[in-house]
């Protein structure tokens, strides 16, 4: 989200391939990405959080295409995952069991990811008072971590959720994310 290196590298690759074609330098044509695939890859990497956007779209499509499954099944699963991550992070008894800081970071990323998915799938979003996710608690858990570690995660909540700026979002939640 903060480092566009892969998109820049891919643009450089495309320019190099284009130059090679113009100069009739068909060096390793079997490994070359065709134009259609290159265009799709460019659009994928153009998103601020491409994988999260893809997961969000897939989850939303799943919910809309499978009307026989209650929406609550999906949203309950996502809210439970967010709650489990929050409890693991805020409870010293649990978080002290992690042998690596990477595990804590992974847990924070999962929590933020499922919050964003929930916000995209649920009609009222994750920030609504009726949400099954304790947003105030989740944001507090993130803010209790070193700022440089969670800056990207807090930005993801600010900029990739659908319902943060809704009128139904409590002001204290919006203030916490400012």
User: What sort of overall outline do the alpha carbons produce when their principal axes are compared?
Assistant: globular
Mean residue pLDDT: 87
**Unreliable sequence segments:** none
Indicate the structural class. Answer: mainly alpha
Radius of gyration: 20 Å
Helix content: 55-70%
Number of strand elements: 0
Strand content range:
under 5%
Reading the helices and strands in chain order gives HHHHHHHHH
The helix tally amounts to 9
Key features of this structure:
mainly alpha; 9 helices; 178 residues; globular; 67% helix; 0% strand
What features would you describe in this structure?
With 178 residues, the protein is mostly helical. It is 67% helix and 0% strand. It is built from 9 helices and no strands. The longest helix has 21 residues, at 101-121. The mean pLDDT is 87.
Compose a concise summary of this entry.
With 178 residues, the protein is mainly α. It has helices spanning 5-22, 35-46, 50-65, 71-90, 92-95, 101-121, 135-143, 147-159, 171-176.
Task: Chart the SSEs and their pairings.
Blueprint: H1 5-22, H2 35-46, H3 50-65, H4 71-90, H5 92-95, H6 101-121, H7 135-143, H8 147-159, H9 171-176
């Amino acid at each position: 989200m903060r480092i566009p290196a892969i998109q820049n590298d891919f643009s450089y690759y495309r320019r190099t391939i284009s130059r090679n074609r113009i100069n009739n330098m068909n060096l390793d044509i079997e490994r070359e990405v065709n134009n259609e695939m290159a265009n799709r890859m460019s659009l994928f990497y153009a998103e601020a959080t491409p994988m999260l956007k893809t997961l969000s779209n897939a989850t939303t499509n799943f919910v809309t295409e499978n009307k026989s499954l209650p929406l609550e099944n999906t949203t309950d699963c996502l809210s439970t995952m967010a709650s489990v991550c929050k409890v693991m992070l805020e409870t010293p008894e649990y978080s002290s069991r992690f042998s690596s800081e990477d595990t804590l970071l992974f847990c924070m990323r999962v929590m933020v990811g499922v919050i964003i998915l929930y916000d995209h799938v649920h009609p009222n979003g994750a920030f609504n008072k009726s949400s099954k996710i304790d947003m105030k608690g989740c944001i507090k858990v993130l803010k209790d971590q070193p700022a440089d570690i969670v800056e990207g995660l807090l930005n993801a909540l600010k900029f990739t959720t659908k319902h943060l700026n809704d009128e139904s979002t409590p002001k204290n939640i919006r203030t916490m994310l400012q």
